[in-house]
Specification:
This protein is an alpha+beta fold and about 240 residues long. The protein has 2 helices and 9 strands. Strands 1, 4, 5, 6, 7, 8 and 9 form a 7-stranded antiparallel β-sheet that branches. It has a two-stranded antiparallel sheet with strand order 2-3. It is globular and about 45 Å long. The N and C termini lie far apart (about 75 Å). Bound molecules: calcium ion. Calcium ion binds next to strand 9.
Length: about 240
């Protein structure tokens, strides 16, 4: 093997973990329409007319609408009858959906694509979950403000702390745009799983419940008293409280 060939093999080997971490769009994940997933509410997909419209169900495996069937384009235009103009930067597009029964969510994969100039981009993504319809919502994942990707595709695969839920909500905050047209984010797919994604970092340990913290506090207080008692028994002066 020549040195150049050896370097190529080495580089290919180095690239493998990254390639393995990006998982493909799924048509059999727990949120997919094919598995009984259903959309409950949304701020709206692109809709200029009956002949030029997108559909929010497409991010869950649907193929509806007349524009990019298979992708969801969130609205970038409000017809004059509803106020007119494009949605402003900072506008929060949202969708809520549910599964046929409760699931234990452990990971998700978000696939999106913008066209550059932040057209069809979002700059914050938040995923929320609830055991009951309409919340109260627990934040499962949040990119935080100022999230950037592209121009081009985004494949965001994340392991989350396991959470039992049946109802879900995703929020996509409208990114500022350089072009007055085509501003609504393009979401190709949002997949959910009850397994961890191999190759992605595991989530941190769950935060203890308040009740557990209270018990922990009682335990620590008891430990402090025991130590003070032990020092007193040895003749040392107890700490002032
Ligand atoms: Ca899917």
């Amino acid at each position: 093997m020549t040195r150049a060939a050896a370097i190529l093999v080495l580089l290919a080997g180095l690239a493998l973990p990254r390639m393995a971490a990006a998982i493909p769009i799924s048509s059999s994940d727990l949120w997919d329409l094919s598995q009984g997933g259903a959309v409950d509410a949304t701020t709206g997909a692109l809709y200029y007319s009956a002949g030029y419209r997108s559909d929010v169900r497409n991010m869950f495996g649907g193929a509806y609408g007349t524009v990019e069937a298979g992708n969801t384009l969130f609205k970038d235009y409000i017809s004059p009858g509803f106020g007119g103009g494009s949605v402003p930067a900072g506008y929060v597009h949202s969708v809520e959906w549910h599964t046929p029964g409760a699931i234990t969510l452990r990971s998700f994969s978000l696939h999106a694509y913008n066209e550059g100039m932040d057209r069809r981009a979002f700059d914050r993504f938040t995923l929320l979950a609830s055991a009951v319809a309409g919340g109260p919502w627990t934040t499962v994942y949040d990119t935080g403000a100022g999230f950037a990707y592209g121009p081009g595709g985004l494949d965001l695969s994340v392991n989350v702390s396991a959470i039992d839920a049946q109802y879900f909500r995703a929020e996509f905050t409208q990114a500022p745009w350089s072009s007055a047209s085509a501003v609504g984010p393009r979401i190709q797919e949002l997949d959910g799983y009850d397994t961890f994604i191999a190759g992605e970092p595991l989530p941190p340990d769950p935060v203890p419940e308040p009740a557990s913290l209270a018990l922990l506090g009682i335990g620590l207080a008891g430990l402090g008293l025991a130590r003070r008692y032990a020092r007193t028994r040895r003749g040392a002066r107890p700490n002032k409280i």
